[in-house]
Every structure is written in C-alpha cells, then in structure tokens.
Design goal:
With 858 residues, the protein is mainly α. The chain is 63% helix and 5% strand. The strands form 2 sheets. The protein has a 5-stranded parallel β-sheet with strand order 2-3-4-1-5. The protein has a 3-stranded antiparallel β-sheet with strand order 6-8-7. Strand 3, helix 6 and strand 4 form a beta-alpha-beta unit. The longest helix is centred in the middle third of the chain and has 18 residues. The relative contact order is 0.04.
C-alpha cells in the first residue's frame, strides 16, 4: 500500500538524523494505536539514511517476563562493538549501561538506536532509556522509540519514562489514522468500495491493507476476519505451520523455525502472501495484530499443544532462552518447567532491576508451591516479598515476608532464616513504624550465634546497626556496624562500602571527627561491583552524613551526584528519599514553583508510605509560605500525626519546625509548643545540630524561651540576635528566603526593605506582610507595595521595572550603568537584580539571561 500521509513525520525524523550526524543527539517518540504504521514509518526513514550510518534495532517482547535488556540484546547482533561484547560476556546491569553509552558515543560515526514496542519493555530497559533521554544530547546518536499509546493505562510504567523525556531534543510523533480521502483513493485504486472500507477500518493502515488484499471479496467486519481471510488462501499444511508460528510471541529465530515441522521452506507461500517476513535471522509476522488474530482463532487444546512443541524445542537448545522457556511453560501448563527455571529467571530479572518481571515469575512459581522443595519455597517467598514491596504492594509484601520467616524456621537453615528476618525487618524499617523493625533485626543476629563468619553475619550485624542508627540511637548502633565492617573486610567484599557508609553515618550522629573520612572512603570502589540498590543506599548515607556534620557544600555535591546516578532507576525505596531531599533543596534556593510541583507529584504517586513523612512537612511549609494557608495547615497536621507514629527524629524534627514557622506566619498555634518541646529533647545529640538550630530560630521569632545553644553554626546566629552573620551565611548558601527573614529582623529601614523585596519576589506573602508591619512599627511611611496584578501575570512574576532591568542586564550593562539609565540609586538596582535572580531560580547574571531568553522575556 505504501506510506500515505506521513510526510511530516518522515521529515522530522530526517532532521533528527541529520542533527545526530553533527553530534547533536535527540529522541523521537513514534506513537499510535496497533496497526497505525509505526514500524513502516521508522523503516522508511532509516532506508533514506546515508551510507555509513550505523543502525541498532531491537524490539521489546510481550512475554510474561521479558528478557532483561531484550531490545539491546537484539541490537547487539547487528555489529561487533562494546554492546555485543557486553552481551557475550553476560554483563550485569551497570556494565550494560556503560556498553550502551560506549556504543552510541564511539568514533564509528552517527548511530540510530531503534527500540520498538516500548510499551512491553522490561524495567531494566526502561531505566536505561530514562538515563539515555537525559544524556543523549551530547552523543552523535538518535534514539527512536515506538509504542502503542492506547495501551498506556493509568499506572503503566512507560508513563514515567514519557514524563521524563522532555525538552527541545525530544520529538513526539503521534501517528493519526488515514483521512477519508486517502482511504477512498487507495480503495478506488484496487476496486474496493471506498465507503465500506472506511466504515470497516476507520483509516487504520494495517486493517485497510488487509481489506485491500482481497479486492474481490466483501469487506470483512473486523481485523481478525481480514487476517483470517488471507490465511485461508493458504494450503492446509502451510496454514498449520503459520498457526504453529503464531504462538511464538517474540521474533522466532531461524534455528527454531527450522526445527518446527516444515521448517522455513514450509512458510514460503505465507511469505509470498505477505503474512510472514524473513529478515535473515528471524521469522516474524508482518504485524503482531496478525499473529494475535491467528493465535486467538485456535481452539484451546491445539494452542496448548503448539506451546508444548515450542517449549520442547527451546529446551533442546544448547543454551535455552530461559524467559521464553518460562513463558511457553506457563502457556503450556508445564508446572515442572516453571518451578525448575523460574527461580533463575526471577533472580536475573531482579538483579537487572526488572522488578515487575521478577514479580510475575515468582507469582507463577507460587501457583505451584506444592512442587517446590521446602528451602526453595522459602527462598521464593523471601524474594517475592521484596518484589511486592518494590511494586508498591506493601501489605502483601509484609505478609509474604512473615510467611518466608516461618518457612525458613521450619527448614532449620539458620543463614536463610537470618536473611528472611532482615527482609522482614527492612520492610518494617521503611514503613510508617520503623521502630517495629528492631525485634526481627535482633533475632536475625541472634540466630547466627556460634555460626562461622560470613555474609549472613555481615548482613545481620549491619542491619541491626542500621535499624538502631535510623531510629536515633547512633551510640548503640556503632559497635554492631564496626563489627559488621570488620567481617565484611574479611569475608564479604560486596558489603564493605555499605557497612562503611553506615559506620560513617553513625560517627556523624555522635559528632566523631572520623565520620567524614569513613563516608568518603565508602565511595571508593571495591573488588566486587555494588548492586545498584546498595549503591543508592551508600550515596544516601554519605549525603545524610555530610548534612549531620554541617558540611552543606559536600551534602549538596553528593546529593547532586546521587540524583544523577539514581536517574537510571525506578523511583523505589531509597531513591524516594533522595527525591524528597532534592525538592527541599530546590525550595531552599527559591524555585518554589518547581519544588511544589515536584513534591505534589511525589505525594500523588503510589510511593513508599514512609515517603509521606518526608514530603508533607516540606510541602505543607511551602504552601503556608506562599499564602495557601488552609491546605498547608491540613498537610502539616497530617505530617505531625505521621511523625508521631514513626517516632523518629527524621520525621519529628521537620514536622515540628514547620508547625513553628506556620504559627509565626499565621498567628495560629496548632500544637507547635508540645512538638517543639519533644524535638528539643530528642535532638540533643551532635548529629542533630541542624534540626536544633532551625527549631530554636523559629522559637525566637515566636518570642518563646530559647535555651542556651553554644554549638550552633553560623547560619543559626540569629538565635542569639546576630542577624548579620546569619544573613551573610544564607547568602553564601544561596538560600534567599532564609536570608530575607534575617534581613527583616534588623532595625535598619533599608535592610528590611531589601528583605521585603526578596520576599515579594518569592511570593512569600505572609512573611512580606510581617515585614511591612515591622516597617510601620519602626515609623516608616513610604513602604514598597506588593506585586501588582500584571506582575502576577508575568511568566516569571517580574514587575514592569524588573522586566526593564532584565533587558539592561542582557545588554551587558553594570548595575551602576543601569542606575544611571533609570535615575535611581545603585542599591535599588542591586535589590532589583537580587529579586530577578530569585524569581528566575538562578544564581548569576549569565544564567538569568539564559533563563529569561528561554521564557521569552528578552
């Protein structure tokens, strides 16, 4: 039928390919319903590429548990290179990521990576594509992703990837159905009734092609009827071979087809009729819709028999493709094969970060639990508990973890029992009641008493120490963590970094000077590469430890590195903690709009329950600051209730501080006194000085009694009335709101006005109102007005004068030159420039010009 009405999409792809050849990478998202012609459009665009362009092409499989990095494994067959070497070596997740970037950034010229049917992608592939979308702009490569947008139901994992793929380097190419004119023209060319063809196909190209393939017949009512009408033109033997092939979901390797009755020779007639295609290595249906239509037409008994035949042929291969083996075993009802190969497939998927696939396989295994040996059944439960937890099914995960503990107890295997108790404990630690994890943590270590040193003892000792540390007992945690580190150095190389990071965090909690060295040393590579989940936990500990030590620059640096490193993972467990802290820092630097949006997105997602007590205090506080008082008060009340349930300082302190700030800004108490008293009692340790300083500063603003605090650092100098030192420190840190609050605490009119302008720029209406009240109290009569309506309508909230100043800044004028132009003081221009930088969320004039240009303000 040829390509019709796809000129725009082909031109866009051509431009992207040309940019890629110049080193400007991009992503093209080709979407549409099944049969809309995504593969045809991509194929036509690739056929027009200049000679020498490398094309890597792979597709995702609709298997029960797709192969981890399945499309990359397909693409690796195209040519020798880093990716092919990684696949051949059985590389782990991190090595596959590195190989992919080496492949795309190599010196062999521009590369086009095509990944089809991304709606079926495994989690590991989605993680890689998420990272690739962030970094491809610096590569001589174009990634073309195709997917069915009509299959993206709410909660579909591809939605997160699509949400992350934004920016000028991303082209979205949704394919529309053919117009009525096109359908009539194509139908007239072959003598088919155009009106009937349009009514039956609604312009879907694949369905239309099936209809037009039988010009002398009546127009079939469904796509299935159209496909089967074509199949019925085959002789009985070929038709039987096509039906056999239809149960093979993924592209059928030529070796497998040759082993089927009739081999490839028996499919020649089907190829001539356009039902199947040969690409040299595989045999595929012209479209998956055709395969599905044929498979659905088979009686149940025959379908099962055909799956059994494919399963037998796969098992006869020297190196069976185990995800396909398990898929066909499920379809054939072969429980023995499921329980034999399922554990390996689940482990491989989990190790690659493909959690959904591991979950699906373990669910299949547990349907045949009676065939599993006791220890195998216990092991499946332990792994399944984590799969459920990472899938957001927390209650089920806890129940399965408890069942796993019972099974290990019955087995008498102490090492397995200890690990199962750690699994149960970690889930409790990450729940809304982290203190409930102490009992399984102590049991996990106790059951190993008298056992030889090794990984189980390292794991159990480290977990007990971590549980004590994260529930505010660093002094009790440290001996367990130091012992675990000693054992890891001798017996468990892959646990050294994690143990060391917890030791550093515990030392920071008690104010020990050795903490920073241990934290930094935990980032050094060891002989065994870290599993990605452990790597995330190490990074979290380092960033948290630096914060406890008051080393804010290091905290931000390591947090930024952690955010970048974890961008390749789904937002599961430890990653959520990074995101919550990240948005808090975004709010600190004055980008309140972005912070509010990011925090709301976290709150609305089906995330970890404990993440709510990380998000609610920050978001509720931000809402109160911007005048959204009613919603903010309700959120902070929820935050305090969750904090009391969690009963750990990491939850209690942010909630209490937020309640105190709310009371100051609104004049409404809401229990802040009791909250503050509780937190001050719990935050007496050296590692909690940041919590203590912030809370005491809020108490001073509320004119509440402030206990002596000689150990506070410079940013909290306002506790003792030294607002100048505090304001200077906040300016150094790039936190405009905190600086402005210190400025309005002075008795100098100009200083208060400076702080007021910053508050107006941020949209901090309640604090600005307090600043104006203070100016009136000090006798000032000419007080700057708040933002005008036209200011609020400005895309960045700039006033007319600030908009004018931006234009002068863009011309390279100094503040003195701008002051002369506007006939105002240099200090007034200083205030305007400070407010502009704050509103644009940048820290320099150069960045302000770039951001203002992006927003169309220049």
């Amino acid at each position: 039928m040829g390509l019709v009405e796809r000129e725009v999409e082909l031109e866009t792809l051509s431009r992207r390919f040309a940019s890629g050849s110049r080193g400007q990478g991009s992503v093209a998202l080709v979407s549409g319903e099944a049969g809309i012609g995504k593969t045809s459009v991509v194929g036509a665009a690739i056929s027009a590429l200049p000679r020498g362009t490398r094309v890597l092409r792979g597709a995702c499989d609709d298997l029960i548990a797709p192969r981890s990095f399945g499309p990359l494994r397909d693409a690796a067959r195209a040519a020798a290179g880093p990716l092919a070497a990684a696949v051949a070596a059985g590389a782990d997740r991190e090595a596959m990521f590195d190989a992919m970037f080496a492949e795309l950034g190599g010196s062999g010229g521009p590369v086009v990576l095509v990944v089809e049917d991304v709606h079926w992608a495994d989690d590991a592939t989605l993680d890689l594509l998420r990272l690739l979308g962030r970094r491809i702009v610096d590569l001589p490569a174009v990634a073309v992703l195709t997917f069915r947008d009509d299959e993206l139901v709410e909660g579909h994992p591809l939605r997160q990837l699509l949400g992350a793929l934004v920016g000028p380097h991303v082209s979205r190419l949704p394919l529309a159905r053919l117009s009525p004119n096109a359908v009539h023209q194509l139908a007239d060319d072959v003598g088919v009734d155009g009106a009937a063809a349009l009514a039956a196909t609604a312009g879907n190209p694949f369905f239309l092609a099936e209809v037009l393939a039988n010009p002398g017949a009546a127009v079939p009512p469904t796509v299935a009827d159209a496909v089967l009408a074509r199949v019925m033109q085959l002789d009985a033997a070929t038709r039987s071979r096509v039906e056999q092939l239809a149960v093979v979901v993924a592209p059928a390797a030529r070796s497998l087809v040759e082993a089927l009755p009739g081999g490839t020779a028996g499919l020649v007639a089907a190829e001539r009729l356009g039902i199947v295609e040969f690409d040299g290595r595989n045999v595929v249906f012209r479209h998956d819709l055709a395969r599905r239509a044929i498979e659905a037409s088979l009686p149940g008994g025959r379908r099962i028999a055909l799956h059994r035949l494919v399963l037998a042929l796969l098992l006869a291969e020297a190196e069976p493709d185990l995800p396909r083996v398990v898929h066909h075993a499920v379809e054939a009802g072969n429980a023995e094969v499921i329980v034999r190969y399922g554990p390996q497939v689940a482990r491989q998927a989990a190790h690659a970060g493909a959690n959904r696939q591991a979950l699906a396989v373990r669910e299949q295994m547990l349907r045949h639990a009676d065939l599993l040996a006791p220890i195998a059944l216990a092991r499946v439960h332990t792994g399944h508990a984590w799969s459920l937890f990472n899938a957001g099914r927390y209650a089920e995960g806890l129940a399965v973890a408890e069942r796993g503990v019972a099974l290990w107890e019955a087995s008498g295997d102490l090492g397995g029992l200890s690990e199962a108790l750690v699994t149960l404990g970690r889930q409790l630690l990450l729940s809304t009641r982290p203190r409930s994890a102490e009992d399984p943590a102590r049991r996990a270590l106790a059951v190993l008493h008298g056992q030889p040193p090794g990984y189980p003892r390292v794991l159990a000792g480290m977990f007990l120490g971590a549980q004590l540390l994260l529930t505010d007992r660093p002094d009790a945690a440290l001996p367990h963590l130091e012992e675990a580190l000693e054992l890891a150095l001798e017996h468990s190389d892959d646990m050294i970094a994690l143990c060391r990071s917890y030791v550093g965090l515990a030392l920071a909690g008690i104010g020990d000077a050795r903490a920073a060295d241990q934290l930094i040393k935990s980032l050094e590579p060891t002989g065994t590469p870290l599993h990605h989940e452990r790597q995330v936990r190490v990074l979290r500990n380092v960033a948290d430890g630096m914060r406890r030590l008051g080393r804010w620059q290091e905290e931000r640096r390591y947090l930024a590195a952690a955010i970048d490193d974890t961008s390749r993972y789904d937002p599961v467990v430890p990653v959520l903690e990074f995101h919550a802290r990240h948005w808090a820092l975004v709010a600190d630097r004055g980008d309140w709009t972005a912070a509010e949006a990011g925090l709301r997105a976290m709150l609305e997602s089906d995330g970890l329950p404990a993440a709510r007590y990380m998000v609610l205090p920050v978001l509720g506080r931000l809402l109160v600051r911007t005048g959204q008082v009613d919603e903010g008060r309700e959120m902070l009340a929820d935050a305090w209730a969750l904090a009391r349930e969690a009963d750990v300082l990491a939850a209690l302190a942010p909630a209490a501080i937020a309640l105190a700030e709310q009371a100051w800004l609104t004049g409404r108490g809401d229990g802040w006194r009791d909250a503050a008293a509780l937190v001050l009692e719990r935050a007496a340790g050296a590692g909690a000085v940041h919590h203590r300083g912030e809370l005491l500063r809020q108490l001073r603003r509320l004119d509440a009694p402030v206990p002596a605090a000689p150990d506070l650092t410079a940013e909290w100098a306002g506790v003792h009335g030294d607002w100048r030192t505090a304001a200077a420190e906040w300016e150094t840190r790039g936190q405009p709101y905190e600086r402005a609050l210190e400025l309005i605490d002075s008795d100098e009119h100009e200083t208060i006005v400076e702080g007021l302008l910053v508050l107006d720029g941020l949209g901090a209406a309640p604090a600005a109102a307090l600043a104006r009240a203070r100016l009136r109290k000090l006798g000032l009569t000419r007080i700057p007005r708040g933002p005008r309506p036209q200011t609020r309508e400005n895309v960045a909230g700039l006033t007319e004068r600030q908009q004018e100043v931006v234009g002068f800044v863009a011309k390279g004028m100094t503040n003195a030159e701008i002051a002369q132009q506007l006939v105002v003081s240099v200090r007034t221009v200083d205030h305007h420039v400070t407010a502009i930088l704050t509103k644009l969320g940048v820290s320099s004039r150069r960045e302000a010009i770039r951001r203002a240009t992006e927003l169309g303000l220049i």
